[in-house]
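[Automated response] Your request has been received and processed.

Submitted sequence:
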Amino acid sequence: MFADVGTARIFFDTAGSGLAVDGERMVERPALIVMHGGPGFDHSTMRPYFDRFADSHQVIYIDHRANGRSTGEQSSLTLAQWGDDVKAFCDVLGIARPVVYGNSFGGMVAMAYAARHPGHPSKLILSSTAARMRFDETYRMMEERGGKDARAIAERFWTTTDDGAIADYMRVCMPFYNPPGGNAELQAQARRRAILRGDTLRYFSTGEMRTMDARAGLSKIACPTLITVGDYDPITPVVCSQEIFDAMPQGVAKLEIFRGAGHGVHRDQPDEAERAMRAFLA
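Generated structure:
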């Protein structure tokens, strides 16, 4: 399904109905918009995990502009536009006061959306994300896990992002995003089934992603916000989540650090991540 926001067609899919039967009446369920990482990937990397929340919410997955199945001109690919797309998407479909979940790049979009439209979301969940990149810590952790070769590949990817750099980074560095064992094969399957738009990945990763600093805008966010991060995560390490928490108004945000979890805590500690989310959503 697609929602036309004027300058792009945003692909979306849902799990669960917007109305639930309750005896003699129909009860409206709140919307939970789930936003994938990347950039360049599609929403399939988030499934089927978040389908489980369809028992209490209508779960809506989107492909960001120029990601996955969605359209959009490269010249429009900014965090400001991606953030505005969330508001426009809701306006088109009549979604009011959504809960918005953003993982990794999706969390960057979620922060832009909530800062630019602070009265729109009811709640915000920022998972394994960053207001600004901390490449110093990323390169250190890559070298710690994969030696100097892994560090060199990471540095090349984040400075050139040509086709060879992308392939090497996916092969060597991405497996270090999460601890070995556990759900590693499920994560590999998710990467294999995903649509990867290399042009979008290259454009953002060599541009705004390197220079962004969203911390000032975080002071505008007014809704309750849950920030989750794994201490094994090398790409958006704990220091990034701490910076987000410190930049938000006092009493708005809650920071939860998952020991032994990597990038996207739901991948490594699904039960613990679900408990944290359900407590927050309740």
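Summary generated for your ticket: The chain has two domains: 2-132+184-281, 135-177. The chain has a mean pLDDT of 95.
If you did not submit this request, please reply to this message.
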